[in-house]
Design goal:
The chain is of the alpha/beta class and 456 residues long. The protein is 49% helix and 11% strand. The protein has a 6-stranded mixed β-sheet with strand order 1-7-11-10-8-9, sandwiched between helices. A 3-stranded parallel β-sheet has the order 2-3-4. It has a two-stranded antiparallel sheet with strand order 5-6. A hairpin with a 5-residue loop joins β8 and β9.
């Protein structure tokens, strides 16, 4: 099985902040509707189906809006699969320095980390970061954690800033305590933090070119990024880049804001791809460059292996009760094994067919709902060339589609090339990727194209 590292949880965090702002920043993070919770749970279940488990970087867990509302004790019934550890563990792995999740939290609180998922305005998140940085003293914080426990130390460190009101501070500390306890009990795996593999990430998707940006300020930030000005210990720092982009994002110039968004999205993709490469994970990109990938995919649509899933399949998954989820995954166990270990698309189709047979169409949320989901597989090259990799076709098929000489453009990098899987939701009757409306995810599988290890 290969875990999935999804960038989608960052978008969940951003929506949480926008919702808090709309509500006057008074709504606690854990108060979500039953429908919203089903959406979050459904996304988690879909990612477990894709990879067998979900890999999280520590900020996604400890500063993740989704994990503020999905508690580990409940998830053990709602997410665990009996085919994995007998259902006694969560199919979740999180990285942390020295595999110490509690120590990682204390380090975040004692080094001025930007907690961006809290239900408070951006300005308050930044103020909290400044106040934590002013008081940064890891040795003192570690001593407090040893004396009072990590939750007690976290509460003391947050209280000293006087930024969060008492109810929100206590809810936040309680949420951290739940996940730290789950880690202590072995309900989820905590692995040592590995250095991110930026060499592979840059080979697969280089940063934007200067001519892709509209303004001089955006190009200066790009130059600082690629020139190493944002590096910490030899690796790019996302928080430093975000700091430089903050002024552009708030600019009254639309071009400056567009440049800032382009740079932020590009760096985020690089950041997560570098981590996925170092951890040997699949990478789920929730916001790909839709136009480019649709145009590249369209010529190969008719010859592509396609997996059809039922309408609104993530919501169907999320609306299942814990008992229904267990029965469903028990019935799908052999097919899941075939997908996880052999990358057998027919097995993944069987999982979808079973879902369609066991669930009903949820009530429509809008007129723009998309009726099916198609899954296709691609391998992207270092110079931007994308080849269709059909099941069983491998490199010879990619060469036949794109012409001789194609294999020479594929990126290998330190972690090996990545073979993406694109998940595209398309409208009824649409036969071309260029025409569909709806979500278009990309899931990248680690491995060397044409090697046969992933059923290509």
């Amino acid at each position: 099985m290969t875990a999935v590292l999804s960038t989608g949880w960052d978008s969940v965090r951003q929506r949480s902040r926008l919702s808090a702002r709309a509500a006057g920043a008074t709504a606690p993070a854990e108060r979500v509707t039953a429908f919203e919770r089903a959406e979050l749970l459904g996304r988690l279940r879909w990612e477990v189906i894709q990879g067998g488990s979900l890999f999280l970087v520590y900020p996604q867990l400890l500063d993740g809006a989704a994990f503020a509302v999905l508690r580990p004790a409940e998830l053990l019934d709602e997410l665990a699969i009996r085919a994995i550890g007998g259902g006694a563990v969560l199919p979740i792995r999180v990285n942390s320095r020295n595999a110490d999740l509690a120590g990682q939290l204390i380090a975040m609180l004692s080094t001025g980390f930007l907690f961006s998922s809290l239900p408070i305005p951006d300005e308050e998140c930044l103020r909290l970061q400044r106040e934590l940085a002013v008081r940064a003293d890891f040795e003192a914080a570690a001593a407090t954690a040893a004396a009072e426990g990590p939750a007690g130390a976290a509460d003391r460190l947050l209280a000293a800033t006087e930024v969060l009101d008492t109810p929100l501070r206590r809810r936040t500390v309680a949420r951290w305590g739940d996940w730290l306890e789950a880690a202590d009990r072995g309900l989820l795996e905590v692995s040592p933090l590995e250095p991110a593999d930026y060499a592979t990430a840059y080979a697969l998707r280089p940063p934007p070119r200067p001519d892709e940006l509209a303004g001089d300020e955006g190009r200066r930030v790009l130059s600082a990024w690629t020139g190493g000005e944002f590096d910490v210990n030899g690796l790019p720092s996302r928080s430093r880049l975000y700091g430089r982009l903050d002024r552009l994002l708030r600019s009254e110039d639309p071009a400056a804001r567009a440049d800032a968004q382009t740079l932020r999205e590009s760096f985020d993709e690089t950041y997560y791809r570098a981590i996925a490469a170092s951890e040997g994970c699949m990478l789920g990109l929730a916001s790909p460059r839709r136009g480019i990938r649709r145009r590249e995919a369209a010529p190969f649509m008719e010859r592509a292996p396609v997996v059809m899933y039922p309408t609104r399949f993530e919501l169907r998954l999320g609306l299942m009760s814990a008992e229904q989820w267990q029965r469903y995954t028990d019935e799908a166990a052999d097919a899941l094994d075939g997908w996880w270990h052999r990358r057998d698309l027919a097995a993944l189709q069987e999982v979808g067919d079973l879902l369609g047979g066991r669930t009903k169409e949820p009530p429509a949320g809008s007129a723009d709902e998309v009726p099916v989901t198609r899954l296709q597989r691609f391998t992207r090259g270092a110079r931007g060339v994308t080849a269709q990799m059909m099941a069983g076709g491998g490199m010879s098929l990619a060469t036949g589609l794109l012409g001789q000489g194609t294999p020479g453009v594929f990126a290998a990098g330190a972690g090996g090339a990545l073979a993406p899987v694109a998940v595209a939701a398309v409208s009824a009757g649409v036969t071309r990727l260029t025409d569909f409306r709806g979500r278009y995810d990309v899931i990248e599988l680690p491995g060397v194209p044409g090697g046969g290890s992933h059923g290509q």
